[in-house]
Design a protein that fits this description.
By secondary structure, this protein is mainly β. It is 3% helix and 44% strand. A 4-stranded mixed beta sheet has the order 1-4-5-6, with no helix packed on it. A 4-stranded antiparallel beta sheet has the order 7-8-9-10, with no helix packed on it. The radius of gyration is 45 Å and the shape is elongated. The protein starts with a helix and ends in a 15-residue tail after the last strand. The relative contact order is 0.06.
C-alpha cells in the first residue's frame, strides 16, 4: 500500500516539478516583533528547494532556489540568507509556505502571498498555467474573495499546503477560508465543491454552514478550539470525494468501535499521514503509519521508540512530506521517523546519518558527530524534506535534511544528514538605534547603537566592529556604540543615520556577518524671516506690501510704531500695511519668525514715505510769436522730479527736467503744439499738466517807391 501511495505522490510531484519547483520552509519561534505583533509559533509547512525564515524583527529571510519567485523581488539563487523585500512599512507576524508559494500575515492582520500561482494559490483571482505563467516574486495582498472585501484582512494565521492556501480569520467565530487547487476533484478546498478557486472561499461543515472556532489548520485538517479535529477531501485513508469538513474519529478499545478524537492541542500533516497531540502528551496518527502501512482514516496511537510502544511524553509535533518529528517534553530531545529520502535521493531529514532506510519506529536525532543525541530543544519545525530545531536556552538553530540548493543557509549545497547548527543570527536580535526625538532646534542628538554579541575585547581583536554614517553631519565617535551626532550647518532635510555591525568569521573562513540599522532623524530647523527688500518707498497713505515670509512651521509677527493697520493681520508674514494720520518721513517695520524651543529670527523693513507729486502750469494755453523762447510756466511739488515732453521741434532750456524751463522752437512752426509736464516721485503715481502753445506769425512791413521821374 505504501509503495502505491508513494508512486502516486511521486507522479503528482513530477507533474508540478517544472512549474513549481520552489518549495519553502518556515522556521519560526514565538518572537516579539513589536508591542502589538507577536510571532505565531511554530509554522511547520515548507518545501523542497527554498526555505523561508522569520526574524524577531518582522523581517523575512530566504535561501535556496528562486525558480518560481520564492526568493522574492531582486533576489537570485543563494546558499546564504537574503532578505525578502516587503512592501513599505509592512512587517511580518507569521509566514507559511505551500508547494511553490509563500504566505505572510502582516502585523496589521493583512494577508500577502508570492511565488508560484499555477493553481490560483496566491489568491489574486488569477490562475496561471504553462502558457499563462503568473509567478509573482513581489509580496502582494490576497483578494478578499468570499469576505466581500477588496483584500483579505483581519487574519489570524495563514497556512500553505501543496498548491492550496488557508486563512484563519481573527473574528469572534474564527472562520476558515481556502483557495487554490482541487486537482483530483475530491473537495480539497472543503468549500462544498470539487472545483479549485483563485480567491478565498469558506470551508464548510455542510451547505451554507461555515466551519468555525478554528484554532489551527494543517493540510486538509483543522483543529477547533474545543479540541476536535475535522477533515475534508480524500487523503489520509478517506475514500471518495468529501467536499465538506467532517469530524475525525479514533479507535476505541479493541478497535471494533470508534468515537470522536477529542482533547487535541496540536496537529501536523504530511502527505501520507496526519499527527495529533492530545492534552495528555500522547500522539495519534491516521492515514498511513510512518512506514506506509496500516492505512486508515481512523486515528490510532502513533508507534513509539520500541515495538509495542506508543509516542508519549511529547511536547510538540511536526510533519514533512514523508517524515515526522516529535519533541520530548522532559528531555528536549527530538525523535524522527518515516522516510529519509526526497523521491529517490538521500536527503537526511531524519537526522540519523546518510542512507538510513525508512523508519517505522521513532529514533533520536543525532548531532553531526553521529553519536550525540540532539537535546535542549524547545521548538521544532519541518520542510517537505528537511527538519529544524531551536534551543531557546542556547539561542541556537539546528537544521538537517534537504540542502540541494543551499536552502539551509550554510553557504554550500552539500548533504546534511545530522543536526547541524545554522548561522541564523539575523533571526534573533538585530542591530538597532535608539535616540530621543528632537523637540527643539538643537542640531545635535545622542545616539545609542545595539550590536548583539558585541564586546570591547572583540573590538580590540578586530573580530567585531561598529560604524556610524549619515547623509549630512559628523559623529563624535564613529566606531563606538554611543555617539553624539551634529548635523551640518544649513542642512534642512531629514538626516538618515546608519549603524553597521560587522562580525568576522575567522574560524569558518566565511564572509563577515553584517547587520545594519537605519533611522531618519527629523531635526527641528531654526525659524527664518525674510523680506523682499529692506527699504521701501511708499507714496502717501496707500497700502504697503511689506514682502515678508517665514520658514515652514514658523509663526510670523509684524510690529511697528507707525499708526495704521495690517491686513489681514500682523501675524501673516505676507501682510500689507495701510498708514493713517500724519505720515512720518520714514518708519521701521519688524518681522519676527518664531518656533517653540528655538531662538527667533528677525528682519526689518524701512519705509520712506513720500507725498504724491503734483504738476502745475501758469496757463494751459499760451500764444507765441514766431521762434521766440516760450516760458512754459511750469512747476512741481517739493521732492518731485519734472519732465517736459513735446513733439514740436526745438530745445528746452536749461533742459527738459526743469519744471520752469523755456522752449525755443526751430524750423517750420506748426499752428499749435502741446507740451506735457510730468511730475514723478518714487513709489507714487505720476501727475501731468499740459500747455497748448499757439504759434502766430510776426508783423511784416511792405515799402512801395513812386515811379522814377528822372530820365
Amino acid at each position: 500500500m505504501y509503495l502505491v501511495v508513494f508512486v502516486n505522490t511521486l507522479l503528482t510531484m513530477l507533474k508540478f516539478f517544472f512549474t513549481s519547483i520552489n518549495i519553502c520552509l518556515l522556521l519560526a519561534s514565538q518572537f516579539l516583533v513589536n508591542a502589538q505583533c507577536v510571532q505565531i509559533s511554530p509554522n511547520v509547512l515548507g518545501g523542497v528547494f527554498t526555505n523561508l525564515y522569520q526574524a524577531k524583527t518582522g523581517k523575512i529571510y530566504v535561501a535556496g532556489s528562486n525558480f518560481s519567485g520564492m526568493m522574492g523581488e531582486d533576489n537570485s539563487n543563494s546558499s546564504t540568507l537574503k532578505k525578502v523585500k516587503l512592501p513599505k512599512d509592512v512587517s511580518s507576524k507569521q509566514i507559511s509556505t505551500g508547494f511553490g508559494h509563500a504566505l505572510m500575515v502582516s502585523c496589521d492582520g493583512k494577508a500577502y502571498s508570492w511565488g508560484s500561482n499555477t493553481a490560483g494559490q496566491l489568491g489574486n483571482g488569477v490562475i496561471g498555467g504553462p502558457t499563462n505563467k503568473t509567478d509573482n516574486p513581489v509580496p502582494s495582498q490576497v483578494n478578499g474573495g468570499a469576505t466581500g472585501k477588496d483584500f483579505l484582512e483581519g487574519v489570524k494565521e495563514l497556512r500553505g499546503f501543496n498548491q492550496v492556501s488557508y486563512a484563519i480569520m481573527n473574528s469572534n467565530s474564527k472562520e476558515l477560508l481556502s483557495w487554490g487547487e482541487d486537482a483530483k476533484k475530491t473537495g480539497e478546498l472543503g468549500n462544498g465543491t470539487t472545483e479549485g478557486s483563485s480567491s478565498p472561499t469558506y470551508v464548510l461543515k455542510a451547505k451554507n454552514t461555515k466551519l468555525t472556532n478554528v484554532k489551527s489548520v494543517n493540510g486538509s485538517a483543522a483543529l477547533l478550539e474545543d479540541g476536535t479535529v475535522w477533515m475534508w477531501g480524500s487523503k489520509y485513508g478517506q475514500t471518495g470525494a468529501n467536499p465538506y469538513a467532517t469530524q475525525v474519529m479514533k479507535k476505541q478499545g479493541d478497535g471494533s468501535s470508534t468515537l470522536p478524537l477529542t482533547e487535541i492541542t496540536e496537529i501536523a500533516a504530511g502527505d501520507i499521514f496526519v499527527l495529533a497531540l492530545d492534552k495528555n502528551d500522547d500522539v495519534w496518527i491516521w492515514g498511513q503509519d510512518f512506514d506506509g502501512s496500516n492505512e486508515s482514516h481512523i486515528a490510532r496511537r502513533a508507534p513509539g521508540i520500541s515495538e509495542g510502544t506508543y509516542l508519549s511524553g511529547i511536547k510538540s509535533i511536526a510533519a514533512g512530506e514523508f517524515h515526522m518529528l516529535a519533541l520530548q517534553k522532559e528531555t528536549g530531545k527530538v525523535l524522527s521517523a518515516g522516510d529519509n529520502v526526497l523521491w529517490t535521493d538521500n536527503t537526511g531529514q531524519l537526522g540519523l546519518g546518510p542512507n538510513v532506510p525508512r523508519q517505522k519506529k521513532a529514533r533520536y536525532v543525532l548531532l553531526n558527530d553521529g553519536v550525540t543525541e540532539l537535546s535542549g530543544i524547545t521548538e521544532i519545525s519541518t520542510s517537505r524534506a528537511g527538519s529544524f530545531a531551536y534551543s531557546a536556552n542556547q539561542n541556537k538553530y539546528y537544521g538537517w535534511g534537504n540542502n540541494t540548493e543551499g536552502q539551509l543557509g550554510l553557504g554550500h549545497s552539500d548533504e546534511v544528514n545530522y543536526a547541524t547548527e545554522l548561522p541564523l543570527e539575523v533571526l534573533g536580535e538585530e542591530a538597532s538605534i535608539t535616540y530621543e526625538d528632537r523637540s527643539d532646534c538643537d542640531p545635535t542628538v545622542e545616539l545609542t547603537g545595539k550590536a548583539p554579541g558585541y564586546t570591547e575585547d572583540d573590538k580590540k581583536n578586530k573580530i567585531q566592529s561598529v560604524k556610524w554614517t549619515s547623509n549630512s553631519g559628523t559623529f563624535s565617535n564613529e566606531d563606538d556604540l554611543v555617539t553624539t551626532f551634529t548635523k551640518s550647518e544649513g542642512f534642512t532635510g531629514d538626516v538618515i543615520i546608519t549603524f553597521t555591525h560587522t562580525k568576522e568569521n575567522p574560524k569558518d573562513k566565511k564572509e563577515p556577518t553584517i547587520q545594519t540599522a537605519e533611522v531618519t532623524v527629523k531635526f527641528k530647523n531654526p525659524p527664518t524671516a525674510s523680506v523682499t527688500s529692506n527699504t521701501i518707498s511708499s507714496c502717501g497713505s496707500s497700502a504697503i506690501n511689506l514682502g515678508g515670509s517665514v520658514s515652514t512651521g514658523a509663526s510670523a509677527t509684524w510690529s511697528t510704531e507707525t499708526s495704521g493697520s495690517f491686513s489681514p493681520n500682523n501675524t501673516t508674514a505676507g501682510a500689507t500695511f495701510t498708514p493713517t494720520g500724519t505720515l512720518p518721513s520714514s518708519a521701521t517695520f519688524t518681522l519676527t519668525a518664531s518656533s517653540s524651543g528655538c531662538s527667533s529670527d528677525v528682519e526689518t523693513v524701512t519705509v520712506n514715505f513720500t507725498s504724491p507729486p503734483t504738476a502745475s502750469v501758469t496757463s494751459n494755453t499760451i500764444s507765441s510769436c514766431g521762434s521766440s523762447a516760450i516760458n512754459l510756466g511750469g512747476s512741481v511739488s517739493t521732492g518731485a522730479s519734472a519732465t517736459w515732453s513735446t513733439e514740436a521741434s526745438g530745445s528746452f532750456s536749461p533742459n527738459n527736467t526743469t519744471a520752469g524751463a523755456t522752449f525755443t522752437p526751430t524750423g517750420t512752426l506748426p499752428s499749435s503744439a502741446t507740451f506735457t509736464l510730468t511730475a514723478s516721485s518714487s513709489g507714487c503715481s505720476s501727475d501731468v499738466e499740459t500747455v497748448t502753445v499757439n504759434f502766430i506769425d510776426g508783423p511784416t512791413v511792405t515799402l512801395e517807391l513812386p515811379p522814377s521821374v528822372c530820365t
